Amino acid sequence: MLYTIVKQNSYQDSVNLMLLTNKISTMEGITKVQIMMGTPANKDILKAAGLYTDELETAASNDMCIVVDTEQEEKIEEVLEEIDNYLSNQAISAGKESFETVNSWDKAVNALPDANIAIISTPGQYAAEEAEKALDRDMHVMIFSDNVTTEDERRIKEKAHEKGLLVMGPDAGTVIVSGVPLAFANVVKTGKIGVIGASGTGIQEVTTEIDRLGAGVSHAIGTGGRDLSDKIGAITMLDGLKALAQHNQTEVITLISKPPAKEVRDEVVNLLHSISKPVVAIFLGEEPHNHEGNVYYANTLEETAALAVDLVKGNEIQANYNHLEDEVPAVDLKPEQKTIKGLYSGGTLGYEAATLISRGLNLGETDHDQAGYLLNADGFEIIDLGDDIYTQGKPHPMIDPDTRIQFFQKAAQDESTAVILFDVVLGYGAHDDMAGALLPGIEKIQAETKANGRNIYFVATVCGTDQDPQDIDEQKAKLEKAGVIIRDSNNQAALTALAMLGIQVEEVSKEVVPAAQEVETVKFTVSEAIEKLMNEKPSVVNVGLKKFTESVTANGGRVVQYDWRPVAGGNPRLRKILSLLK
Length: 582
Hints:
By secondary structure, the protein is of the alpha/beta class. The chain contains 19 helices and 24 strands. The chain has a 7-stranded mixed β-sheet, with helices on both faces. A hairpin with a 2-residue loop joins β17 and β18. The mean pLDDT is about 95. It comes from Sporosarcina koreensis. InterPro entries: CoA-bd, NAD(P)-bd_dom_sf, SUCC_ACL_C, Succinyl-CoA_synth-like.
């Protein structure tokens, strides 16, 4: 039976409520539970989950909605007590914080007058509005939020460009400014390689590989995944490249992108050739055969990092970086076990694995029959479990293991499955112990398949550094103890999984050839605001998820928390009237 409690004017951020939902769902006697704010979008999620009740009809965006499915009515009091305890502990923790918490933009600016970056992680329908408020206060903006319209993204990026500011995002998961990681980011050594990417986990993979290979990162600028589309036109990518080109500490620039629009790619590549510094570029899905002039093209994220490190260290550039580094593990498989199932929390890591498997199988272009699938052909599947279809009303798989474990079990039930390929992404924002959280599911699958006379092999990469909040060596050790085959990069993990099935990926050797056409190198000038961003530790106004303050304070940045609430209770008509009045 469904029980509904609506707590009026009790706003909490989405991550807090997702974690609270997970906690309550483990209570004995609870069939299902969902705790969300009463926004129209969340009400749609509750309807889709079969948890919508009449009591939710009048709930506003500022109201906390608790829906519990249980056959024991007495459990409701227990649930409410658990919720109150959780929120009370959150309030106690807030009282011990080393930064100031405010409830308006004006108070935020008064508390931190030199703030130069705003991190926006509000619900998507409010993000563009808050980003514009930050731009009006001459701040750069990182928009972590998704579900921002293309029209809004274009408008705020054009406004930022005119003001000499950067908008990183929407849906920018990872940024590093002067050694300070923002949102979902790793702690990497500071150095001379500047990174810019239309990809969150692509940036994480490349920056952690740079760290592992003994070099460091000056900045990592996330542009948001749509920046290189024809509708946006690479506004942030172009401005960010110019910023890195003029930054004295940056000696090598690295660019990461999923497939861009052709005209936009041409404009970006033309700019790359006009930069006097060497540039390493990867356009995922492309298969470059040569480097051109001062621009070095990579096939994999691992090669991207290796090229950048060799360039910054003055080493000789190798013709081919994409080969297996470790011995291929011996396997004992049934004749029908011929496929790989890749279950990824990182969309770009999944895309890279899908590309490598497609090359190994000579599949060419493949169609995806549903959202979230990056590859679905001949029983081989690569799924991005961070896709919106899997995260509506649920935590991202970097935070919560449940969705991944469910997909592990489904993959194991397919008799064609030989290898389950996956990633564990460490760093700020990610789960404190993802390896430990995944282990019970992995061990259960291994025991069940062995009892049925089959072996299923797990192959993984751990994306992180020894400076991250999690202990990377401990994470790897836990997985290896359970029999998981660990590799140092996503490329190596995918190549290993393929080699276990006797499949090789042949990569061409590349040489440096002259650029197709001569482009004069340019010394770029950037705005005073961008120059300051490139040369100082950031001062941040964090609008939304309080979790994002941790990485700033721990790495020498300054932050004020804007304890954001929807204006006018989230009522669209009232919000518009208030905006016009202002």
